[in-house]
# Entry
Amino acid sequence: MDIKKIGEFIRKRRESLNLSQGQLSYKCDLETSVIHRIEVGERKKINYEHLKKIATGLDMNYIELYKLAGIIEEDALSDYYLPDFNDKINQQIELISDTKVDTIPIYESVSAGCGYIPDSVPLEYISLHLSGKENCIGIIVDGHSMEPTITDKAVIVMKKDTELKSKDIGVFLLNGEAYVKRFFKKNNIIILYSDNSEYSPIIVDEYDDFIICGKVIKTLNEIK
# Structure
């Protein structure tokens, strides 16, 4: 990580917006001394969360600062946004089918956009054709960030404690909030993507409390 290069970029961006260090510190909820030390290159290491806040104060996507800092490589995003990737999204959700009918619990919604933990008491139970229902639950999605793959109020079937591969859709706990996102990992950097391009990717850093709850193996229509 080139601390001086990052600091110089932040300073020039701040000055182009006619912001003082004090004004920027107010916008991004950081001490003015923190902004100053970053800009002059005095910090040996920059907190990932600080970069996120500074990017917000500079009216830019924090992904750009992460790329500049070398936290995420330039091609990590290009690998995800392949020209034909969106055309194949629906084919990449693993659908499990079998002649056996199983009953699984359906829980309160987990927001695909903002995120919150589902209630511990099921709303109801439904019968599905599943191969190995063990550790499977249903969750009602509340949000538009995974459209068109998963629509608002759709039911997802999640298999707990399942290893995820890049581009799998999973359910995650991030700093106490639950998310339904597409998983991507490269060079030990974890990124959670939305299939809806209007939502920014979420980069999981070393300071985050992050848990992979399970893999989305099936999607259903809205339960009436």
Notes: Strands lie at 101-111, 124-129, 136-142, 155-160, 169-174, 177-186, 189-193, 202-204, 210-220. Residues 78-99, 111-119 have pLDDT under 50 and may be disordered. The longest strand covers residues 101-111.
